[in-house]
Structure formats: structure tokens, C-alpha cells
Amino acid sequence: MTTSPETSEPTRRADVTEDAGHPTLSDALRHWARTQGDRCAVTFVDYRVRDAGMATSMTWRTLDARVDAVAAWCQRRAVRGDRVAVLVDQSLDYVVAFLGALRAGLVAVPLFEPTPLPGHDERLAAVLTDCAPSLVLTARRHGDAIERFLTRRGLSGPRIVAVDVVPLVSGHDYDPVPLRPDDIAYLQYTSGSTRAPAGVMITHANVVANARQGMASYGCEQALTTSVSWLPLFHDMGLVLGLVSPVHGGFPATLMDPLAFLARPRRWLERLAATRGPVVTAAPNFAYGYTASRTTEAERAALRLDHVVALGDGSEPVLPSTLDTFYEAFADCGLHPRMHRHTYGLAEAVVLVSVSSAGSPPARVSLDRTALAAGRAEVVAPGVGSALTLVSAGQAVGQEIRIVDPKTATTVPSGHVGEIWVSGPNVGVGYWGREEDTRHVFAAQLRDAEGGIVEPWPERPGWLRTGDLGVLVDGDLYITGRQKDLIIVDGHNHYPQDLEYTVEQAHPAVRRHAVAAFSVPGDEGEQVVVVAERARQLAAGDLDVADVAAVVRASVSQRHGLALRDVVLIGPGGLPRTSSGKIQRSACRIRYVERSF
């Protein structure tokens, strides 16, 4: 360890070659420890120590040895197949804990340490109750707090193991576990934006397949590419970008703490600039706008980012205006829209389903909003009053996508909106302890317009219902919304993210990317409510709330022909969000109905 400062079938990308040499992450780690043992495997940059960051690294050999030690320790305290919760802050210890659980033949559950952040401890307690772990892997610095948390929540069953004090000599007692590709590797709990968190059962074969798909689509090369990520390792995108793909592909990863990014977003770009190319990274869409708005011209002038080959964007709707703002701000640094890779995915498929093409900016299409609300994609000229511009999420990578009428479970023609269904080797095997939900979501049967059966990926029980709405235009996938969030008023469909964008543009007092639109029952049917956070630079006493509400109502009425029932303005940070930062519209609806905002 070192320290230093016509059908709904899109065009599919070429199949990704199987990598039989590394059927599990544990096998891959062992291989890289043997073949490039003294090279850097993973680096964590700690900004709590100093503003410029303190970098600590592990070689492949050291990482493999520490993983052996943790695996041996776990073997003596748990039975194969037991769940093991990983409750560590973003650090090298997290990487060791996760891989150690896998190597021991246990089922890892990537989570987070108890934190004062709103809602996190409640979610953590719910997940621990659901998965009933035998062990909790953490670090010594969290041990006392976790013990108090478990006791307070009535969860005193699991044994706590601090991975940073497990002696390397313990690895001498490790008894190799023959891991099978269809064994469950970990439970990836969904973010819970529309329902209670559920643990997706991800097998070793699933995670290796998605790592392979991601590496191929992002052009990652062994020992050459470096991934840089501030995304939390307990989140699906952060886990795959910051740990899974680098370990499988044998290239180094650099990790940061999410809070270090939120405090000073320039650190993300500074770390990219300081990392030898080629470099890949990814973030939710809000991060690109946030970074552009929170960096100065002088800070940008010091950055050279020509060697970045991919800037992934996923986890939430991608706004064209955000991309334009970001790449205009950092054009002189060497960033270009052709580096941007809009990705669609979900935890049920590990993380990655489709991605826009390399070497050119993600395609855009302007659609008539009225036709789109009726379920049809009618292309119009950009900028006309009825136009809604969407950014392409590209094409499926090593798997299949269909657009489906969810009521009839039949494919719809290209250019028609429907639910996105997926099938591929990366799709998980179901939800932990939820057999009925597993059958409904992971084993759906699909038919074409003529009634013929559409076969899923080989050896898959059926198709995955994603719950997301999309449309295919010229072979590219465009995400239009989430089925459960769709607002239907007087028989007309309205996408909440469309309304939210209109609201945030309506008045400067509305904070960007901090608006929730949802429907509630009324005397004459569904009615729409908007809850928005006020801009941080404005004090509550400085606002004429009635004026802001009137402007918002007028903008929504003019653009969408929709009368709002209510406009609620709240303080910054008041909207409930998931662990990945997405606004929880369902939770907003509950709070509104309960009058708890």
C-alpha cells in the first residue's frame, strides 16, 4: 500500500465476446495478482485529510492478499450462501470487504454505514431486516456506531467484522471456495424511487456479463484505461464503474467520496486531469450541470481533459440543456460532446442495458409533445412550440430490448411508446424473498403483433419488465418516463420530468433539478401538484410565493395545457431523494397528502 498527496427491435451492437477465463470476479482478481501483481489496482483519494486530497493505493497483489484474509475470516463465521452486509464508508476497505465476501462464497450486500443524512438510516434498517445478514463487514472506525445502530433497531443478530484489522496471516487459512457462475454473488437493493427497496439477486455470471458489456461499449483496455468515480459503491452504477469492471478487466480504478464531490465538484475534474489517459467516468445528469455551475473560469483554465474517452451519463433523465451547458463550459479544457455516453440501465440488469455510440455526440430527436402523450413519436423541427427534445440512450449492448404494450404483453411498432423489456445474460434472477414479484418482473412472456412467442435470451425464463417507458426512433432508444410516474389527466398523458423542466425554467426562484410533479385524486379526477425547492441564494423572506406560483401555473398552462392544483415552494434540500440522488415522487406525494412538507 502506498500513500501520496417496424418492430420494436432496435439495432443491436455486436455481441460481446465471452471471457471464459474469468467466470467470477474472484477468479479475475487472482489472475491479475499473478500477472501484474506490482501494478496499481485501486486508489482512494481522501479529501478529509487535505483539500488537495491524499491518495492511498493498493497493488493487485496486496488487494488479493487482503481479500484472502477477509475471506478466510468470514469462512470461520458464516455458512456458504449467508448474506454479508458491507457497511463501510467510501474507501479501500469497502473494496476489500465486498470482494472478500464474494471469495468466501457468501452473498454480499453493498450498503452504507449509518449516517445522519435524511432517510438513510431508515432505509438501511429496512434492508438489513429484509436480507437478515449473518455478518456485517465494516471498518474499525465505524464499529461502535454500527453496534449502537443495530442494537437500537433491534438488529443485534449479525456479527461485526472490521476488515481493516483482519491480519494478512489469516489468508493462509483460506480454503478456496469453488464458485459457480449461477451462484448468487450479491444483492443489489433498488433505490426505492417508486417502491420499497428490493434486493435484486445478481449471480457471478450476471455481474461478469455486464462488466464485459460495459468494457466493450466504453472501450476499456487492460492496464491502460483508468476509471475515476465519486459515485457511492453501494449504488449499482458506482459499484460497476468503480469496482466490478476494473477488477474484471484488470485496469486501475480511482475512487473519491461522494461528499467530496458535492462539496467541491471541481475535484472530480481535477482528478480526471491528474489521471493518465485513457480515462472513463460516469455520473447522473445533475452532476454535469452542477459541476458547470460550481467551477470558476480560473479553475477551468487549469484543466486539460483531452485524454478522457468516455463520460457516462445515466440513472436519471438526460437533459439536452445540461449537456450543452457542460460542454460549452469545458470546451477549452478539451472536453467535447462526442465523449458523452448516455446510458440506460437498472439494478435488475446489474446496471447497463444500452449506451449511445462512441465517437459522436448522443443523437437527439425533437418530438411533438401532444403526439408523444398519446403514445406516438412524431418528429418535428427543433424549437417549435410543441417540440420536446430527447437524448438517445443508444442501442442494447450484448442483450435484447423490446418496446411492449404492458397491458397486452405484445411488442409495439417502432415509433410507438411502450414499456421497455430486456433480456440478456446480465439480467438478475429475481428479488430476494419475493417469488411473486420475481415471476411478474423477471419472467414475463412476450408475443409479437401476430401472436407469435418472442423468445428471450437463451436459458432465460422470460423477459424483464423494467417499468420504464421508451420509444425507438431510427433504431435508437429514447427514454420517455417511468410507467408508475406517468400522470394521466382527462385521458391525456403527461411525463413528470417534462412538467418539472418547465417549472424550473419558469422562475429564477425555483432551484434547478429540484422539482417534483405528481398527481393526487380530486373531486373530478386526477389533479397535478408541483413541489419545488427555492434557489439556495434566496431567503424565504425575500420571496413573493404567490408571484412564483402564478408564474409557474402560467408556464405549465401555456406549454402543456394543464391546470395545476397546487404549487408548493419549500427550502433547499427538502425533497426526498433516493441514495443515488433521484427525487422520490411517490414519497413527495405521500408527504403532500399528509401535509408534512
CATH class of the largest domain, anyone? Answer: Alpha Beta
Mean pLDDT: 90
Q: If you compute it from the alpha carbons, what radius of gyration comes out, rounded to the nearest whole angstrom?
A: 24 Å
Give me the CATH superfamily of the largest domain: ANL, N-terminal domain
Q: Main β-sheet, in a few words?
A: 10 strands, mixed
Tell me the domain tally.
Answer: 3
Describe the structure.
- With 597 residues, the chain is of the alpha/beta class.
- The protein is 30% helix and 25% strand.
- The strands form 7 sheets. A 10-stranded mixed beta sheet has the order 1-3-2-11-10-12-13-14-15-18, sandwiched between helices. A 5-stranded antiparallel beta sheet has the order 20-19-21-22-23.
- The radius of gyration is 24 Å and the shape is globular.
- The protein starts with a strand and ends with a helix.
- Pfam families: AMP-binding, AMP-dom_DIP2-like.
- Belongs to the ATP-dependent AMP-binding enzyme family.
- GO terms for molecular function: adenylyltransferase activity; ligase activity.
How do you describe this structure in short?
The protein is of the alpha/beta class and 597 residues long.
Structural key phrases:
ten-stranded mixed beta sheet; Rossmann fold; 597 residues; Luciferase, domain 3; disordered N terminus; five-stranded antiparallel beta sheet; single chain; 30% helix; 17 helices; alpha/beta; GMP Synthetase, Chain A, domain 3
